[in-house]
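Practice problem 4.
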């Protein structure tokens, strides 16, 4: 074998190796873009999942906020309804009290002295001695009298048969004031002083 033949064989082997190397590089180049593309698709999927998760979280949060707002509105409405009910009940209670003359809605004021009872209120009996008292059955009255002379007095209400229907406390000190609450029944006929029944006596009309 000559030197020239040896050179030619080496040239062929080198050329073949270059071709193989180029082929390998080419294959690697082809594989690399494909692999990169798969990674990008995965990233896009992950981003989509994150977006969906964010949307779901946002929607859930919005739904929760809306629920809370609804609950707060319902609570406010319930409170308002309760307040309205309370106001209605208070109004009804007031109306019932007024209708029945509850408490001391009507007042009768007298001055007590041995000579007789002196009318002070209402205006229709003011200044009168032993004035006739007009009472409405079912109405609650506050009967107030003041001791004018320092003698002992006590106010009693009786029916037509002389039966006692109500009595105040007695007082013997001048200037002392006695109050009694009484609901008219319609049976009242007269009022008088326990200790001066002749001079301190007046009639009661009902109706």
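Answer key:
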């Amino acid at each position: 074998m000559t030197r020239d033949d040896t050179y030619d064989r080496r040239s062929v082997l080198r050329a073949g190796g270059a071709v193989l190397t180029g082929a390998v590089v080419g294959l690697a180049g082809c594989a690399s873009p494909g692999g990169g593309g798969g990674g990008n698709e995965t990233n896009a999927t992950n981003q989509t999942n994150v977006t969906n998760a964010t949307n779901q979280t946002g929607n859930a949060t919005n739904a929760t906020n809306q629920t809370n707002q609804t609950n707060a509105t319902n609570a406010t409405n319930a409170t308002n309804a309760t307040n309205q009910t309370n106001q209605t009940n208070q109004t009804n209670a007031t109306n019932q009290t007024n209708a029945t003359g509850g408490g001391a809605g009507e007042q009768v004021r007298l001055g007590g002295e041995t000579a007789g009872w002196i009318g002070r209120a209402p205006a229709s009996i003011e200044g009168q001695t032993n004035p006739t008292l007009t009472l409405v059955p079912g109405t609650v009255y506050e009967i107030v009298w003041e001791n004018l002379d320092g003698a002992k007095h006590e106010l009693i209400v009786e029916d037509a048969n002389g039966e006692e229907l109500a009595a105040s406390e007695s007082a013997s000190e001048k200037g002392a004031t006695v109050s009694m609450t009484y609901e008219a029944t319609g049976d009242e006929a007269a009022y008088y002083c326990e200790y001066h029944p002749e001079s301190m006596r007046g009639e009661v009309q009902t109706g």
